[in-house]
Amino acid sequence: MKNKEKILEVKDLYITFNTFSGEVHAVRGINFGLHKGETLAIVGESGSGKSVTNKSIIGILSKNANVKSGEILYKGNDIINYNDKQFTEIRGSELSMIFQDPMSSLDPVMKIGKQITETLRLKHKVKESDAKKKAIELMAAVGIPQPEKRYNQYPFQFSGGMRQRIVIAIALACDPEVLICDEPTTALDVTIQSQILELIRDMQKERNLSVIFITHDLGVVANVADRVAVMYAGKIVEIGTVDEIFYNPKHPYTWGLLASMPDMDTDNDDDLFAIPGTPPNMLFPPKGDAFAARNKYAMEIDFKEEPPMYKVSDTHYAATWLLHPDAPKVEMPENLKNRINKQLKKAGEK
What we know:
alpha/beta, eight-stranded mixed beta sheet
């Protein structure tokens, strides 16, 4: 990053949930930073701890959640133990979030315009006329046609893509510094998905936003993120720049995620790769490397000891024993290597 200023930093965060079945270890000692104006993507399968991590940042964890330890530093201040009043002061105005289902984020019986102005009037205490003017400007900025007319319409009168644009407008209404996007394109078709991603990218550049983008799909973040953190079983197992993760991945789990992505060369008859097995039960976190049982390259030590984060470069780290100096030399799967080489060749021809 050219700008090294960290606006947000998560340090050694542990979060569990009390359930009828026992204590679920959802987040297990993760560390990452977010720079001013940067987009960090956090990827991984469902249940890996992505959303829990980010809900803890804006203080909306459920009541059965326990933050066992760690720090969340926003502009140098530890907000991990903020109470509701303290979070209310920064939520929306400084830290904002877009959720994956716009219909559940919007009030179905409240006009769209009022849902935007409500945020403005609550946070900035502006007059109703000024709030309406700002709301219409926001609707236009996120690509809503005829915003003056649509200001008085209800959510059911908007398509899924347009509803998500309204959710983005609400999230941006108070000019936050950090925007968390929790799988914001999951329920949308591919064309609309692309438009929403482009909108988020444009808004990020225009406003110098710091963005955390949560997704289970690595393909979604290729043209959006600056860096990528790969999560598995409550831990970050690899983190690096987009190019490092896509073209020089080091963790077998990242190999599996990349190999399971369809691309333009995938034929209808081709069988997509699937990572074998299932994620571990986080009521009983496995000893050693949590991915070991699904990893065909696992060694004896993987089932006994957790691997440290090995440094690949100044910006690239991976938690796998395969990077230990004494480990056998293992190359990424041949099909993934061929795919990466094709992508690099195409990039070089452009």
